[in-house]
Amino acid sequence: MSRNRTTPRRRREGPVGIAQLPWQLVENPLPPVEVLRPDQVERIHDASLTILEEIGMDFLHDEAIEIWRQAGARTTPGSRRVRFDRGMVLEAVAKAPSDYTFHARNPERDVHIGGRSIVFASVGSAPNVSDIEGGRRVGNYRDYCNLIRLGQALNAMHIFGGYPVEPVDLHPSTRHLDALRAFVTLSDKPFHAYALGRTRMLDGIEIARIARGVSRDQLLREPSLFTVVNTSSPLRLDGPMIEGLIEMAKAGQIVAVTPFTLAGAMAPATLAGALAQQNAEALATIALIQMVRPGAPVMYGGFTSNVDMKSGAPAFGTPEYAKAALAGGQLARRYGLPYRSSNTNASNAVDVQATYESMVSLWAATQGHANMIMHSLGWLEGGLRASFEKMIIDAELVQTMVEFMKPIVVDDDTLGLDAIREVGPGGHFFGCQHTLARYESAFYAPLLSDWRNFEAWQEAGAPDATQRAHQLYKRILAEFEPPPLDPAIAEELDAFVARRKEEGGVISD
Q1: Matching Pfam families, A to Z (predicted)?
Q2: Contact by Cβ (8 Å): 68, 57
């Protein structure tokens, strides 16, 4: 698809016949909103490097400790603590690319990471799932596949940001094989594999290679898989994440490094302190990736929010979350790195709270120039639930943001002086040629919003937005057809999954 930001504002038929905006690459032409002065950015930068020099960070894996030892970091036999010279960290981080292409099995679905590009990702890693018909339930493979179908059909979503819901009815030893195969067979968009140890990561890399039908050398040059590496805040990186990032770096695949710094719980109860800790953890982890393979594609992730000081529960879509998202963008740009943020909310229902907290999150992420917005569609209950209806509502929010970011065109045609002359004082523009020529494309047409008058809406049963979202997602699934897949690729994929299952997958409890 073209990256043209002047795509006509018209409802286009999607892959299942629903009226929605066309699939398109998105760029943000607006200047980033900056909540920190340049001197404040530098103070946070300096504080984070002081943290790494004086306090250090724990790496819970011998291989990481050895990589750091050989690089000249300060390590102590028998300890997991590593302390760093700031110059060594910054030199390593500077080797990371500022932008790259994330390749899909369908080249028309490739996306650009970096610069002014924005990529919207699905909800990921939720343990539960819900809709208003079946209620809240534990994640399962049937709902997992239906969420993939829905994500494939919605043009507002570019990539899958993890398992939309965890399919816990599949055995943990081989769950990743079925889950990743479903990404390939039910969608042609780029996808994610979890950095939960070396074996799962290697399986994910191979499935991404098979899906594209390319050699390992080509895969090394063309990132086709991404993962998220979360630090275990404060100042610790766990062994499975370390194994995952090492294999992804070796294979030249994308790692989004994202400290989970909740102010007041896993970070200081101030935004400045939480951001300094976030930055320290992100820089150290990105530096480790570059030690493994200089030039490996990474993203600087920000996920700093606050807790409810009364209950200790995480809060999302708050003013603090929004400011941290904007500040995270400033820090990422400070190092010339692509930036990952998230669309979040803490609501327990698909209600007005879920929507306004998500809008706050989306606004901060886009205006902070995030290059990848995780959980853009479907996140509910602080990330503990994926919601079918919320997927639809979020698609509307994303489409609205995409349209908002398109520049206003000012030229002889759009100024409409001939139309104003034709209508004159006291007339109307409904029937003039200028209006008729733009009847279908003049303004944004919503996916979900209902603009009927009260009487027509009431006569139709007075459905609210959540009910309409439910009806729409059910229609999408009823009409869904998977994208074409080369039979040779499908055969190779099935053979790989069958062999790995016969071998037992990965060791699990």
Answers
A1: MTTB
A2: no
